[in-house]
Design brief:
18 helices; 39% helix; Probable imidazolonepropionase; Urease, subunit C, domain 1; histidine metabolism; alpha/beta; zinc
């Protein structure tokens, strides 16, 4: 018996406890992503510090720990326990509504045609610039709460609908406020190079970011006012070309930001090759990535954040997930939540990845947990159920974990508990709860 030390949470007797990985792997590639660690008849302990203290067979955990030492015990008989999901790419801070553009897309308008007609990013920029910080925080908080209820416990959140220093900082302050006040984990991304502002050339916008935006960000980071983790650029034809992208990303890296950017989405830009060269942590989209780019990313251990909602909603060709997996790329997933791809749910993203990108359910779960955490530089603390990692977990009301992916849109009644740092942050009243005491 492990003494009388107090603990926060015991999840006991789970039908399946999905470790994802169990040997401290920073990511899963090839065969590792295809076969996940799963324990049956297992229990898990989270300490008062919010970290996992023990994982193992239920009888072994029962003999090690006294039930009297736990603040909360949940009987998970007939249920599954999984790591909290990680959403590796979102744009959740904005004002304005672009539901009208959905009709345009259905009528055949392309992303760039909508963009050039004054819609797309520029429409959102106009509304976001006008919105107060309080208005932005209110809608952002609501969106994060919906993501949490759908099982996401760590979310990457971008700025990028300001395109001027004042509004970009306003968005980053909103993200910082949520990071400090909410239970959900946040990785903050500066994305001032999301589009070229009206009235500027790409070169002028690049110079403004390097000479004005990034020095201010560095100052605010050093003072502790804003915590920013990543730098992002939309590397695309008619937006930021390869050389502008290189300059901005290198300048961001020089002030300590991880490189995590949009590349090879609508046109082949050699973004993957650039990212591998610069030591990028991750590159998103990659619908038009070259074979050489895939090889370079695998060699550089640069994660590919694939976004099946984007290809689905914009009717683009799907990213080459199978080729990337076979070549040893670290494949992660993100919802790409934004006004153009309005999806809060990583279970639905995993389902689309399986159906449209031909990923297996094991590969999709690895991509939405350990590999998505890797893409954010956080796989040492998130993404799997291992001793020492943060106690972010899901309990689902099913005897097989695959139901989280199989039930397309079914997560609303399937997820029983969402847990962050061993604290229950969402309990689904629609699920049977008599096993909790």
């Amino acid at each position: 018996m492990a003494g009388r030390e107090r603990h926060r949470l015991l999840l006991q007797n789970a039908q399946q406890l999905v470790l994802v990985c169990g040997r401290g792997e920073p990511s899963l590639r090839r065969d590792g992503a295809a076969s996940l660690g799963v324990l049956r008849g297992a229990s898990l302990v989270v300490g008062l510090d919010g970290c996992i203290k023990a994982v193992g067979q239920a009888d072994v955990i029962h003999n090690q720990f006294s039930e009297a030492t736990f603040e909360r015990i949940i009987d998970c008989s007939g249920k599954c326990v999984l790591p909290g999901l990680v959403d590796a790419h979102t744009h959740p801070v904005w004002a304005g509504d672009r539901v009208h553009e959905f009709a345009m897309k259905l009528a055949g308008a392309s992303y760039m045609e909508i963009h050039q007609a004054g819609g797309g990013i520029h429409f959102t920029v106009e509304h976001t610039r006008k919105a107060t910080e309080e208005e932005l925080f209110s809608t952002f908080k609501h969106r994060l709460e919906r993501m949490l209820r759908a099982g996401s416990t760590l979310v990457e959140c971008k700025s990028g609908y300001g395109l001027n220093l004042e509004t970009e900082l306003k968005m980053l302050r909103v993200i910082e406020r949520a990071r400090q006040s909410m239970d959900i984990g946040i990785s903050s991304t500066y994305c001032g190079a999301h589009s070229v502002p009206k009235g500027k050339t790409a070169t002028e916008a690049t110079d403004d970011i390097i000479n004005n935006h990034l020095p201010k960000l560095k100052e605010l980071k050093l003072s502790g006012e804003i915590h920013v983790n990543n730098i992002d650029v939309f590397c695309e034809k008619g937006v930021f070309d390869l050389e502008s992208t290189r300059r901005i990303l290198q300048a961001g890296k020089d002030i300590g930001l991880q490189i995590n950017f949009h590349g090879d989405e609508l046109h082949p830009m050699k973004s993957a090759e650039l990212g591998a060269e610069l030591g990028a942590q991750a590159i998103s989209h990659l619908e038009e990535v070259s074979d050489q780019g895939i090889t370079a990313m695998a060699r550089a251990k640069c994660a590919a954040v694939l976004l099946p909602t984007t290809a689905y909603m914009l009717r683009l060709k799907q990213p080459q997930a199978r080729k990337m997996l076979e070549e040893g790329v670290i494949v992660a997933l993100g919802s790409d939540f934004n006004p153009n791809a309005y999806c809060f749910s990583m279970p639905m993203v995993m389902h689309l990845a399986c159906v449209n990108m031909k990923m297996s359910m094991n590969e999709a779960l690895a991509a939405a947990t350990i590999n998505a955490a890797y893409a954010l530089g956080k796989s040492d603390t998130h993404g799997s159920l291992e001793v020492g990692k943060q106690g972010d977990l899901l309990v689902i009301n099913s005897s097989r974990w695959e139901h989280l992916i199989y039930q397309f849109g079914g997560h609303e009644t399937l997820i029983n508990y969402v847990i962050v740092k061993g604290k229950i942050v969402y309990q689904n009243e629609r699920c049977e709860t008599t096993n909790s005491y």
